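user: can you give me the structure for this one chain? tokens are fine.
assistant: on it. calling the predictor now.
[tool input]
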Amino acid sequence: MCSTWLIRAQASIRSHGTLKAFPMLASKLHADSSSSDSMAYSAKIGPSILSSDLSCLGSECLRMMECGADYLHLDVMDGHFVPNLTFGHPMVECLRKSVGQDPFFDMHMMVSRPEQWVKPMAAAGANQYTFHIESTTNPGNLIKEIRESGMKVGLAIKPGTTVEELAPWANQIDMALVMTVEPGFGGQKFMEDMMPKVSWLRSQFPSLDIEVDGGVGPDTIHKCAEAGANMIVSGSAVIGSDDPRSVIALLRTVVAEAIQKRSLDR
């Protein structure tokens, strides 16, 4: 049964086409709908393949999937947006042919012109195209282009970028990536002071997939999970481990328990 406030909100939409004239109703509608789908996200662990032996990348990706990875995180660096250089869509295409259609490829596009690579990455077999808000002047158009190419949309922010810059686009994307190190360099120390960004996003957008990337492993996963991250990128902590399966299971368990606790606390 619809409550009185919801009936009024629906009437407002029919009359005005918007809830802007009724900010309290808009806030209530957002909060109520958010609480109903707050469990729309789940714990997912994505090894960063850049930490693997690149001479046998295909077999390394398959090994990670066999060890329980939920997806694969592929770092694309162009030597401009970040100083380092990695690989592009030809490598992704070869990798897709090698590992088959099942693994989910989350492309972390650390490039200065992300618009340039949307169609090539889609054709190569990418599943999600995650670009940095700092790298484009027209996020809305890029989001539209990514979606029209058949990929999910991820939006990333560097440590120096405020979470408020991402917020206007949060309802148009599938995932927000909060970098917990400076992008472009491996082996950096986890930045715990990025966790308030994650907490804020989780409070404002309860059903959004929120990813953290950089220095995340067994020693730091609790901070990420408690803040509200549910997609965990981990490089050396997983791939460099003697027992990647156990590390992936540990990371997933910590995140899943935090999600369950958050649901019970609501």
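assistant: here you go. Residues 180 and 194 are 6 Å apart (CA to CA). The beta strands are 44-47, 72-77, 105-110, 128-132, 152-157, 175-179, 209-213, 231-234.
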